[in-house]
Amino acid sequence: MVFLSGPRQCGKTTFANDTAKSFVNSVYFNWDRLSDKKRFAANNAFFQEVDRKDASAPLVILDEIHKYNKWKNYLKGVYDEFSDDYCFLVTGSGRLDISHKGGDALSGRYAQMSMFPFTVSELSKPAADIETFIKNPLKNATPDTNSLTMPLWKQLFTYGGFPEPFIKQDKDFLNIWSDGYLKQIVRDDIRSVMELKNADSMEFLVSLLPSKIGSPLSMNNIAQDLNVSFDTVKNWLKILDSFYITFSLSPWSSKISRSILKSKKYYLFNYTEINDESLRFENMAALDLYGALTRWRQSGKGDYRLFYIRNKEKEEVDFLITRDNVPKVLVEAKLNDTEPSRSLTYFQKILKIPAVQLVNKDGIYRLIKNDFGGQLIVSAHLWLASLP
After folding, report:
1. What is the CATH number of domain 2-114?
2. Of 10-19, 88-97, 114-123, 316-325, which range is least confident?
3. pTM of the entire structure?
4. Hey, which of 142, 232, 343, 371 has its CA 20 to 30 A from 177?
């Protein structure tokens, strides 16, 4: 089986239906449709009823099946009995590799894939392969791609990467869509799966996050603001992460003296909720990097991860790319500052790896040589567009 997960309305169902066109036989099931639930209740192996056009294995698309409280047991049984005769594509707006309701393990029975909102790297279709990129992370972006990537970057900055508002390019529509999007996830998706009782407080938590982007999040402070316990806030943040409202980065501490060890930084998949341009810019860079590294990892290219670095003196670099737990590239996001960040230089000397400083200004491309792999000060859209 293939599990395809990602934020609601990022294009999973469209992708699944397009994939079905390459199969002679296929059947689509959506747990959110009452008629499909009735079919499932009558016969949970309903896909056997498909009228085949030839002898090839049918594709069975199971959309939002994770909302069924015994979904893991069901998929285990289906796979064990029917995997020789059917192909299964399981899609959902929750992280399908996380069990909320318990059940038998599905280990070894599926491949995990993710789909995120559009990023400039995805839309630009960079030519570099991953190995070439990671060996020479400062040499893949070139100034001559400016005319192609800058318009995409501006469109993403204004309308976000979710397909519908991105394509419509209408700010009024974006405002209406964003308001309904959050309420739908919290009040429908999360409450139905997690038996959430206090949806209003969780919505309030989400409303606080846009101002907290880019800084280690204090759960104690959030708990006081919401008048709930620390454990409640911790649990809610895990839920938001599980349903693709947020994604989080942990601090990197190896070789960093007096580093902070626990506080995570949180970012939004729908970053258009962030009014501060500097924070929105950092969130966009975070999403592009997070999405690229997730693709690399899921395609078997190595255990690529994204961290941030911060010590108790508050010296910080926004992002650190690692492979198999080995630091590879430092990345700093600065809205307008084209001078090398002091913290970026400081941590580069410690880790001895290349460093990139992304700026939200056009026409910037400065390559600075040093003994640690060099520094690149570059327009963000140029370098991020070069991510494989």
Report:
1. 3.40.50.300
2. 88-97
3. 0.92
4. 232
